[in-house]
Amino acid sequence: MEDLGSRPFWRGLSRGEQRWPFALAFVVMIALQLMLPERYSLGARWVLPAIEVVVIGVLVAANPGRLERRTPMLRRLSLTLIAVASLGTAWSVGKLVTAIAGGKDTGSAAELLGSGAAIWLINVLTFAVWYWELDRGGAPERAAGTDPYPDFLFPQMTAPELAPGHWRPQFADYLYLAFTNATAFSPTDTLPLTRWAKLTMLLQSAISLVTAALVIAKAVNALG
Predict the structure, then answer these.
(1) CB contact set of 119 (below 8 Å; sequence gap of 6+)
(2) How far apart are CA 66 and CA 192, in angstroms?
(3) Going by C-beta distance under 8 Å and a sequence separation of 6 or more, which residues neighbour residue 20?
(4) Which whole number is the average pLDDT over 105-126?
(5) What's the domain count of the chain?
(6) What DSSP letter does each residue of the chain carry, written as one string?
């Protein structure tokens, strides 16, 4: 039997996270999806955002406050929502890359930079919600401290004297992780420990690198 006194502080029982940061990330993502030109959208521009709004509404209605209900149905619904968003992100990235590589019309340099920046930010938000949802089984499981093996090693975990006893990684930490990985193309202060975490960060870095490089090169060429 596990000695509860030997548990690291971040595995102790804690209050669940609020859902609103996760929901706000999707609101921003939906707004960006609606701002993209139709050619970068999967089907009609409103289809994926409409699906995402419905699923978010169900999740918020089922668990409007802190994420402390550990139900398989809600977790599957949350994973489905992220998968739908990821499908739209992959489509937008693919269409943007093929348009640039194939020499198709991408609009003016300003339009291209705007579309590229929106797709890049959508990509960051998509991976942020994946990291948040999958690390140690998701927010409710992290609050319960059930999984002893973290997928991501945050600095506070290795230096507990620098963090309050109630510290737990929350959505802002995963958003920061996704943003820095997309800009540095490598881990910064947070290390991936499991293979899925390493491969997912590798994929995000590759997408970010290709998107930024192609968009900037095309925009510079158009300005020239």
Answers:
(1) 36, 40, 89, 92, 93, 96, 211
(2) 26
(3) none
(4) 88
(5) 1
(6) ---GGGS-GGGS--PPPBSHHHHHHHHHHHHHHHHS-GGGSSSSTTHHHHHHHHHHHHHHHHS-SBS----HHHHHHHHHHHHHHHHHHHHHHHHHHHHHHTT-----HHHHHHHHHHHHHHHHHHHHHHHHHHGGGSHHHHHHT--SS-SEE-HHHH-GGGS-TT----HHHHHHHHHHHHHHSS-SSSEE-SHHHHHHHHHHHHHHHHHHHHHHHHHHHHH-
Residue 68 has pLDDT above 50, yes or no: yes
**Dihedral through CA 178, CA 180, CA 182, CA 185, nearest 10?**
-120
Mean per-residue pLDDT for 117-139?
Answer: 93
Whether 11 and 148 have beta carbons less than 8 Å apart is answered as yes
At a CB cut-off of 8 Å and minimum separation 6, what does 132 contact?
22, 138, 139, 171, 174, 175
Cα Rg of the chain, angstroms: 19
Full residue range of the structural domain in which residue 87 is found: 4-223
What is the average pLDDT value for the chain, to the nearest integer?
Answer: 87
pLDDT at 85 over 60: yes
- pLDDT tens for 46-62 read 888 899 899 888 888 87
This prediction's pTM: 0.90
What pLDDT is stored for residue 1 in this prediction? 43
